[in-house]
């Protein structure tokens, strides 16, 4: 009875396929291929070997490398091919993302004003630079105010830089005040009447 249940559960026997016959047929037809390596395509280098080897040797002269194995050239060629393949895959994903439309999504606003987009990106870049400059300025002022007994050359250099920055800011404030005073002395600007 257990043999009958195995036959019912065996899909191959239900389909009328004998696994023993199939194995014998496979072994008979491919017996000459057993133990051999089959490659789907020839192992050709991606870059020209002579040019690549010359370039590697030129770079290697700095590190006292005077000869190369051909496997090294093939390896670098394949690595270059894989790197380029990865970059192209990433570029493909980016290009597909750029052309995908977000019309159905309310979070996105379709905008064709390139100048406004560039202005927005420039403003973001300007704000990031301002933030970094402010962080550096605060760090320099903290170093300048610190009174440590050990005066290492790096800390002395930072203190000098902070002092120069303070003097520059003071000069800018004085210049701005002088400009405002000069403008106030000149008086309000009058528009010239247009000649008809």
UniProtKB/TrEMBL annotation:
GO terms for biological process: transcription initiation at RNA polymerase II promoter. It comes from the Eukaryota. The keyword Ion transport does not apply. GO terms for molecular function: DNA binding; protein heterodimerization activity; RNA polymerase II general transcription initiation factor activity. Residues 117-176 form a coiled coil. It is found in: Nucleus. Residues 8-193 form the Transcription initiation factor TFIID component TAF4 C-terminal domain. GO terms for cellular component: transcription factor TFIID complex. Pfam families: TAF4. Keywords: Coiled coil, Nucleus, Transcription, Transcription regulation. InterPro entries: Histone-fold, TAF4, TAF4_C. Belongs to the TAF4 family. This is TAF4B factor.
């Amino acid at each position: 009875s257990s043999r009958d249940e195995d036959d019912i559960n065996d899909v191959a026997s239900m389909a009328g396929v004998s696994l023993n016959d199939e194995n014998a047929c496979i072994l008979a037809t491919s017996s000459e291929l057993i133990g051999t390596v089959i490659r789907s395509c020839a192992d050709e280098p991606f870059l020209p070997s002579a040019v690549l080897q010359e370039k590697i040797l030129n770079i290697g002269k700095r590190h006292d490398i005077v000869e190369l194995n051909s496997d090294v050239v093939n390896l670098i060629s394949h690595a270059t091919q894989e790197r380029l393949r990865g970059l192209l895959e990433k570029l493909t994903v980016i290009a597909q993302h750029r052309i995908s439309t977000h019309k159905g999504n309310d979070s996105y606003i379709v905008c064709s004003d390139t100048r406004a987009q560039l202005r927005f990106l420039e403003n973001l870049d300007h704000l990031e630079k301002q933030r970094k400059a402010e962080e550096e300025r605060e760090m320099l002022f903290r170093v300048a105010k610190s009174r440590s007994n050990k005066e290492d050359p790096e800390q002395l250099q930072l203190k000098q830089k902070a002092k120069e920055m303070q003097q520059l800011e003071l000069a800018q404030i004085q210049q701005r005040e002088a400009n405002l005073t000069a403008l106030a002395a000149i008086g309000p600007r009058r528009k010239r009447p247009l000649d008809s």
